[in-house]
């Protein structure tokens, strides 16, 4: 049996591929790309929420937000470790992100303008991330699948705290209710864009599905998110900013309008509202952290003497 046949058999039998196993070069490259982008998303994703750490409305909310942002750093670290098992160096893929040569999720290029945005990010953004990541718990590469299990548990807590923060606003003053609706209006479509282009325009999907890196297409997961979330919007007494949204009796799903793909493509190409600001913040942190990395390395070298 050739190495390729052994690999194909493992994929067919749902046996995880592990770092020491032979794998096609393209499989390895696709995983480094996806896991790397996923890791970058967690790290850049700390910025929009970090913006509100000093302005959270109470000590309780500040403590929760601090823990959530810290979890995101942890998720980034697991994911960089998972990527490294494929033979890449984290410094290298991190530098690619800083140079704009590797992507991170489009969602983090939108600004967080008011406190309701923080509740809505937990509820909608983590909610969308969970739908995608629960599917990835069964991805074919072992270290990625295992990282997803722990990450999903933490994201699930994030999603609930986000919904709870939104519930408080929904039961608050008229001004608070308007703030919540405004945040939903701004984050609804970007959250739907997190699932990527339509399947017809998704160059990586067919091969990633065949290799079981992806378990479902982008459209199916996006639909799952809409079906889960519309009743939650209604429960809050809020509305979805989509006049075309309706329940389709025949399909058993909510039908929604076409996404603004021009906006999606612009944001992914680096021309979103906050792309420059996000990368500038990460470059500054990297440069200003040089002495910390040097000191840590010098300390480690001394310990090994
Ligand atoms: N933004 O052929 P496809 C989080 C790119 S959750 C930017 O469909 P693929 C938690 C795509 O990379 C967010 N780029 O690609 C959190 C590809 O570009 P390339 C992170 C996007 O990979 C919550 C090209 O378009 N989650 O961070 C986007 O098969 C709250 C063509 O697309 C993950 O990364 C986009 N939205 O499917 C943190 C999940 N969509 O590389 C803080 C893992 C597509 O060929 C606060 N990733 N692109 O130049 C995946 O499941 C997949 O990579 C998809 C895209 C579904 C995102």
UniProtKB/TrEMBL annotation:
It holds the Pfam family PaaA_PaaC. This is PaaG family phenylacetate-CoA oxygenase subunit.
């Amino acid at each position: 049996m050739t190495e390729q046949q052994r690999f194909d058999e493992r994929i067919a039998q749902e046996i995880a591929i592990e770092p020491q196993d032979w794998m096609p070069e393209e499989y390895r490259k696709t995983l480094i790309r996806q896991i790397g982008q996923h890791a970058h998303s967690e790290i850049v994703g700390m910025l929009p929420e970090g913006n509100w750490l000093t302005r959270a409305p109470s000590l309780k909310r500040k403590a929760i937000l601090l823990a959530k942002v810290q979890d995101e750093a942890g998720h980034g670290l697991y994911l960089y470790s998972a990527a490294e098992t494929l033979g890449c160096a984290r410094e290298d893929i991190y530098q690619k992100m800083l140079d704009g040569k590797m992507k991170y999720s489009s969602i983090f290029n939108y600004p967080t303008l008011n406190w309701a945005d923080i509740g809505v990010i937990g509820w909608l953004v983590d909610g969308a991330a969970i739908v995608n990541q629960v599917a990835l718990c069964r991805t074919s590469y072992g270290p990625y699948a295992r990282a997803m299990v722990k990450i999903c548990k933490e994201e699930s807590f994030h999603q609930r705290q986000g919904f709870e923060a939104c519930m408080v606003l929904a039961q608050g003053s008229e001004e608070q209710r308007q703030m919540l609706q405004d945040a939903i209006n701004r984050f609804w479509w970007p959250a739907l864009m997190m699932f990527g282009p339509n399947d017809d325009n998704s160059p990586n999907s067919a091969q990633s599905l065949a290799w079981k890196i992806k378990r479902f297409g982008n459209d199916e997961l996006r639909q799952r998110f809409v079906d889960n979330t519309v009743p939650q919007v209604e429960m809050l007494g809020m509305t979805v900013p989509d006049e075309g949204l309706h329940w389709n009796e025949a399909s058993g799903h909510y039908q929604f309008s076409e996404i603004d793909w021009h906006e999606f493509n612009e944001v992914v190409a680096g021309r979103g509202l906050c792309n420059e600001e996000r990368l500038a913040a990460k470059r500054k942190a990297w440069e200003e952290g040089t002495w910390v990395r040097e000191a840590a390395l010098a300390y480690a070298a001394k310990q090994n003497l």
